[in-house]
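Input C-alpha cells:
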C-alpha cells in the first residue's frame, strides 16, 4: 500500500484552517522518553471494514491510516459493541454493555447525558494517573441532567468534565441533529446572548422554515428519508431549532475544527502525559466535505469524506512528530459501528459507489446483527513498543477500559467497567488469540467466538428499505460458521444444535450477570 500523502492533500494545517489554530515550529524530540505514554483514541463515524485501503479496498487511498497500519497492528477481527453510535460509544467509554440499560438507544440532540456523573469512565482512569484528558469532535452521548431541559445558553451541566474530561470541544449531538453548534467546556461556542438557542424535538417553532415545507431553501443537500425538519447551512436536520445564528457550524468546516482543536490540545499538553479522545464526524451524514476534498475520490461526498477522515489522522500524526511525541504516543484508530451508504440524504453515495464495498467481505452494515454491523477497522500504533503485524486476535471495544487501565497501571474501582476485561497483551500484539467470545448488539444480541456466530431470535424487520441494509433479524435461531461462510449466507443452526446451545448459554450467562 502507498503511504505517501497524495499531492492534492499535501498541505499544511495552518493554511487549511478557516478557524484560528495555534501552530509552533518543529520541536526537538525529548531526550528521555516519558514514563507514561500519551494515548490518542480516534473514533471514526460509520466507517466500515472495507472503507480503508489498508483493509483491502482498491477504490481509494487512505495513506495516513495506512501508515499507522504499516507501523503498528492491523486487527482483522475487532468489534464495536453495538451497531449504532450512542450505545457503541457508551460501552467503549464505560466498559459497561449498553444493552444492560434501556436508555442507551440512538440519542436525540436534546438527550440528557447518558453516562451518569457517578459512573467511572476511561477518562477518569487516566485522570487518576495524572493525565490531562480531552474530548474533541462528535459526542452523541447527551448533555445536561434532563432531556429537553438543558440551559443551552449558559453552562450546560452535567457534562464531560463530570465524567473525567478536563477539556472538551464537542458537537452537541451528531451532524444530522440539532442543535448544530459546537460546545467547548460545556458552553456553546460563539453564542450571541441576544440571540439565544432554542431546541425542541416535539414541535416546530412558529415561523421557522423546515425542510419538508421549504425545500427551495435546501441548497446543499436534500433528504432521501427523514431529516426534513430544521434547516441549517442549506441542509435540513432532525429536530427543531431557532436562534444562535452566530454559533451555527458550517458543515464544510467541521473536519477542520476537529483537527484544529485536536492539534491545539496536543501542543498545549506536550510536556505532560495526556489522553485525547477524538470523535470524527466523518463519514456520518450529512456528508459535506471541505472543498479541498470535493471530487477527489470519484465516489461523491461519502468517498470524499473518507479522504477527509484520513487527512484528520494525518494532521494528528504530523503534530505528534513535530512536537517530538510520536515515539511515546499510543494511537488507536477504529470506528463506532459498520457502514451505511444512504442514511437519509440525496448525496449520490449509492449511485457513485461503483466497485467499492464499505462492508468488505461481510453481510449487513450499520443497524445490523450481521457481521458488518460491528466488525470494524482497528489499528494500534506505538513505535518501539508494538511490532508491525496483522493480528487475527478477537478483540472488542468493551475491553479498552480495562486494558488501558492496565497500560497506565491504574486501579479500576470495584463498581466500574463490569464488562471490561484486561486484554492489553492482545491489543499490543503479544497475544494472538484475544477474547474467547464477543457479545454484540443491534436489534438483538449476538455472540461470536471467531468461528461460530449465534444471533438470538427476534420479531423485528429483517430488512431496512430506507438504508438498504439486511438487519439480520429473524424469528428463529441463527448460527453461522464464519470460517467457512464469512458472508453469513447459510444458517446452520438446525445442523449444529450443540453449538447453538453452547452459545445460547454464553449469552444467558452474560445477561444474568
Amino acid at each position: 500500500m502507498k503511504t505517501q500523502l497524495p499531492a492534492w492533500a499535501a498541505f499544511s494545517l495552518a493554511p487549511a484552517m478557516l478557524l484560528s489554530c495555534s501552530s509552533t515550529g518543529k520541536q526537538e524530540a525529548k531526550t528521555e522518553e516519558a514514563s507514561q505514554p500519551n494515548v490518542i483514541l480516534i473514533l471514526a463515524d460509520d466507517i466500515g471494514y472495507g472503507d480503508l485501503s489498508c483493509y483491502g479496498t482498491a477504490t481509494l487511498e487512505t495513506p495516513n491510516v495506512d501508515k499507522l497500519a504499516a507501523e503498528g497492528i492491523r486487527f482483522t477481527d475487532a468489534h464495536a459493541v453495538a451497531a449504532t453510535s450512542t450505545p457503541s460509544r457508551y460501552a467503549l467509554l464505560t466498559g459497561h454493555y449498553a444493552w444492560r440499560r434501556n436508555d442507551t438507544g440512538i440519542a436525540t440532540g436534546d438527550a440528557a447525558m447518558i453516562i451518569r456523573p457517578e459512573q467511572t469512565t476511561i477518562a477518569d482512569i487516566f485522570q487518576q494517573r495524572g493525565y490531562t484528558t480531552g474530548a474533541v469532535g462528535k459526542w452523541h452521548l447527551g448533555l445536561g441532567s434532563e432531556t429537553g431541559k438543558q440551559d443551552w445558553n449558559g453552562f450546560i451541566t452535567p457534562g464531560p468534565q463530570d465524567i473525567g474530561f478536563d477539556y472538551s470541544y464537542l458537537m452537541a449531538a451528531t451532524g444530522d441533529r440539532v442543535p448544530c453548534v459546537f460546545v467547548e467546556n460545556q458552553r456553546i461556542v460563539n453564542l450571541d446572548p441576544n440571540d439565544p438557542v432554542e431546541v425542541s424535538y416535539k414541535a416546530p417553532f412558529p415561523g421557522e422554515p423546515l425542510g419538508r415545507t421549504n425545500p427551495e431553501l435546501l441548497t446543499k443537500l436534500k433528504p432521501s428519508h427523514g431529516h426534513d425538519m430544521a434547516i441549517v447551512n442549506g441542509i435540513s436536520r432532525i429536530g427543531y431549532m431557532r436562534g444562535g445564528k452566530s454559533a451555527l457550524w458550517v458543515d464544510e468546516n467541521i473536519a477542520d475544527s476537529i483537527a484544529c482543536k485536536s492539534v491545539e490540545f496536543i501542543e498545549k499538553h506536550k510536556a505532560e502525559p495526556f489522553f485525547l479522545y477524538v470523535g470524527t464526524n466523518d463519514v456520518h451524514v450529512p456528508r459535506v466535505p471541505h472543498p479541498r476534498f470535493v471530487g477527489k475520490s470519484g465516489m461523491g461526498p461519502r468517498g470524499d469524506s473518507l479522504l477527509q477522515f484520513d487527512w484528520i489522522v494525518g494532521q494528528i500524526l504530523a503534530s505528534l512528530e513535530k512536537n517530538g511525541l510520536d515515539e511515546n504516543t499510543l494511537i488507536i484508530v477504529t470506528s463506532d459501528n459498520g457502514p451505511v451508504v444512504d442514511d437519509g440524504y440525496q448525496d449520490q453515495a449509492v449511485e457513485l459507489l461503483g466497485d467499492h464495498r464499505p462492508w468488505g467481505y461481510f453481510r449487513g452494515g450499520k443497524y445490523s446483527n450481521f457481521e458488518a454491523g460491528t466488525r470494524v477497522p482497528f489499528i494500534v500504533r506505538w513505535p518501539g513498543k508494538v511490532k508491525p503485524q496483522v493480528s487475527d486476535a478477537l478483540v472488542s471495544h468493551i475491553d479498552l477500559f480495562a486494558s488501558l487501565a492496565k497500560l497506565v497501571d491504574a486501579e479500576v474501582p470495584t463498581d466500574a467497567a463490569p464488562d471490561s476485561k484486561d486484554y492489553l497483551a492482545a491489543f499490543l500484539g503479544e497475544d494472538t488469540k484475544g477474547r474467547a467470545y464477543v457479545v454484540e448488539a443491534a436489534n438483538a444480541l449476538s455472540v461470536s467466538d471467531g468461528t461460530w456466530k449465534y444471533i438470538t431470535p427476534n420479531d423485528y424487520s429483517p430488512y431496512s428499505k430506507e438504508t438498504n441494509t439486511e438487519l439480520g433479524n429473524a424469528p428463529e435461531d441463527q448460527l453461522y460458521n464464519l470460517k467457512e461462510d464469512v458472508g453469513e449466507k447459510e444458517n446452520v443452526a438446525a445442523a449444529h444444535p450443540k453449538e447453538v446451545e453452547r452459545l445460547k448459554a454464553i449469552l444467558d450467562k452474560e445477561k444474568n450477570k
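The radius of gyration is 22 Å. Residues 33-188+250-434 form a domain with the Alkaline Phosphatase, subunit A fold (CATH 3.40.720.10).
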